[in-house]
Structures are given as C-alpha cells and as structure tokens.
Write a structure and sequence with these properties.
Layout (H helix, E strand, L loop, with lengths): L2 H15 L3 H18 L2 H17 L3 H18 L2 H17 L3 H17 L5 H17 L3 H17 L3 H14 L1
Helix pairs in contact: 1-2, 1-3, 2-3, 3-4, 4-5, 5-6, 5-7, 6-7, 7-8, 8-9
Length: 177
C-alpha cells in the first residue's frame, strides 16, 4: 500500500471513531480512488468497505450497496473466501435493514457457507454471520430455524466470551420458545 493511501485510511478510521463522518467519507473516498489508480486491489477492497460503512453510518444504505458489490467482485477475483464472506454479509445487512428479506437471505446463506467451509474461520466471525440470518428467519416467522440458529450463535458467542451476544441470543431463544 502506498504511504498516502495508508495515511488516508488511518485518518478515516480515526475520524469515524471521533464521529466526524464527513471527514471519514472524504478520506475513504480519496483512498479508494488512489488504490484504484495504483491497481492496489486488496487495499481497494478495504477502502470500498470503509467507505461503504461510512455511508451506512450516515443512513445511506443504498449508497453503500454498490461499494460493497464492487468489493465483493474484487474478493471473488482474488479468491479470498473469508474477505468475500465478510463483505457479502454486509450486503445482506444492508438489505435486511431496508426490509428486503428476500434479497438479504441469499447473501447470508452464501456468507455462512463460505465461513463453514473455511478452516480459518473464527468462532466470532461465524457467530456474526449466523446472528443476522437468525434475525431474518425470525422476521419471516420461521421459528424452528431461527431458534436453532440463535442457539448456535449463543454457543459460539459463549466460546469467545462475548457476553452481549450470549445475552441477545438468549433473549431471542426465550422469545421464540
């Protein structure tokens, strides 16, 4: 990564932490353009995802969608299954937040398949992929599947000591019982 692109990304991360979303958006956009011009595809994925997250933070999910879609295409091209799974999950989140359950579901299913097939998948990544699918199934009224997914997420969150995830899963399981 070029020093300039790296600095822009670091600035963007810091600006987001400080809730300076306009500054973060500018820095991510500049970093993405620089990465695109210099052919730095892996770094471009990071910049596109960062810019997409800022758009989501600003309540512009539909503006984030093409950024994540471009990142997905680059991940597919590079053959990076874990980065692909993570990015596809975010596309699913955008659809879920917009109430487009039928568009979200295939994203979550693909992400989950990619995570389950990869031996390097961490328990937290797997739990974070299962969670939104459980939410989706619950919203669709598919109680048995939702409960099973929440139970699996709960186990995974417990394994990595994420108490908030365990508590959320437990609440949903109780609600569905």
């Amino acid at each position: 990564m070029s020093d300039v692109a790296d600095k822009l990304m670091q600035q963007a991360v810091q600006a987001r932490k400080e809730k300076r979303l306009a500054d973060a958006k500018r820095d991510w956009a500049e970093a993405a353009e620089l990465c695109r011009l210099e052919g730095m595809k892996r770094d471009l994925v990071a910049a596109l995802k960062g810019l997409g997250q800022i758009e989501r933070d600003m309540g512009h999910g539909d503006a984030a969608l093409p950024l994540y879609e471009e990142a997905v295409a680059l991940c597919r091209e590079a053959g990076e299954p874990l980065a692909l799974a993570h990015t596809i999950r975010h596309i699913g989140d955008i659809h879920l937040e917009a109430g487009r359950l039928e568009s979200a579901e295939p994203c979550y299913l693909e992400a989950l398949t990619l995570y389950r097939r990869n031996e390097r998948t961490g328990a937290l990544d797997l739990a974070n992929a299962i969670r939104p699918l459980a939410m989706l199934k619950e919203q669709k009224g598919e109680v048995k599947q939702a409960r099973s997914l929440w139970a699996e997420a709960k186990e995974l969150y417990a394994a990595v000591d994420v108490d908030a995830g365990v508590a959320e899963s437990s609440r949903h399981i109780a609600h569905l019982s």
